[in-house]
Amino acid sequence: MAFQSLLIESKGRIQFITINREPKLNALNRSLLDELHTAFYEAFNNPNISGIIITGAGSKAFVAGADISEFSDSGKAAAAEMARYGQVNVFDFIENGKKPVIAAINGFALGGGLELAMACHIRIAADSAKMGLPEVTLGLIPGYGGTQRLAQLVGKGKAMEMIMTADMITAADAFQFGLVNHVVSQDELMAKSVEILSKILLRAPLAIASAITAVNAGFKDGVSGFEVEISEFSACFKTLDFREGVSAFLEKRKPDFKGE
Q1: Active site residue 227
Q2: How does pLDDT run across 37-89, given as a tens digit for each residue?
Q3: What is the C-alpha to C-alpha distance for residues 219 and 84, in angstroms, rounded to an integer?
Q4: For residues 20-50, b (16+ Cβ closer than 10 Å) or e, as one string?
Q5: Residue 255 CA to its chain's centroid (Å)
Q6: Pick from 93, 13, 62: which is nearest to 180 by CA?
Q7: What phi and psi, each to the nearest 5 degrees, are found at residue 103?
Q8: In angstroms, what is the C-alpha Rg of the chain?
Q9: Where are the beta strands (DSSP E) in 31-163?
């Protein structure tokens, strides 16, 4: 598919997805959400791709929020449909994907941009990045999972403070709060993202997918994360990767996982 607002590049087993609306600070709109769903669907289902890194074009913004002009006149029903569409087709879709996704936060990650980063499995920020959920300054609250994922990552009290004050925080503060995993210089951002993802890709792909499922289960209402963990743990025993991993350990060699 030819994308209007995304740049897609594959290097080895890693796919790079760049949001390419730099004049708009890479702001989200409906067509971009559609493209993100398609891009991630294709990456998750491409056997030649094992992990994804998403970033924003330029150095100013990862995603500086949603395109306000697109929903300024929306009514209640339309707003609910818009939020549900984004949640199901993009944010939840990324979070529950079976391949690791790293957000390389190169600049402002505000509103829907921070929500997009939080839907990814790992976040790495440039030291110049700024993050926040400013929706209450517009008479709104976050609508793409921000109230839920921020509290999961930084705790209820800090999430309440960030959402209700609408203050931006620095990358250093985001690291201190547990919102991002690493902070590096802008020049080192992609290299660090590739370094971490490359290390993940040395591990058993089916086990990585099971780990994503099990960790996510602990944050879902009505789901026992412990039971999901048991199920995923036992399922690993029937994989060829498990046999290869054990054989490699006993033979004191590096494993050659096939994702089978």
Answers
A1: no
A2: 999 999 999 999 999 999 999 999 999 988 777 666 667 888 788 888 889 99
A3: 19
A4: bbeebbbbbbeebbbbbbebbeebbeeeebb
A5: 28
A6: 62
A7: -95, 120
A8: 19
A9: 51-56, 61-63, 101-105, 108-110, 122-126, 130-132
Q: Catalytic residue at 115?
A: yes
Q: What is the DSSP letter of 8?
A: E
Amino acid letter at 43? A
Catalytic: which of 9, 42, 95, 135? 135
Tens of pLDDT, residue by residue over 136-160, are: 999 999 999 999 999 999 999 999 9
DSSP 3-state of 259: coil
pTM over 0.85: yes
Nearest to 56 by CA among 113, 96, 131: 113
pLDDT digits (tens, 9 = 90+) for 168-214: 999 999 999 999 999 999 999 999 999 999 999 999 999 999 999 99
Write down the pLDDT at residue 73: 65
**Which one-letter amino acid corresponds to residue 88?**
V
- Active-site residue (options: 9, 70, 81, 115): 115
Convert 5-17 to b/e letters by CB count within 10 Å (16 or more is b): bbebeeeebbbbb
pLDDT of residue 206: 96
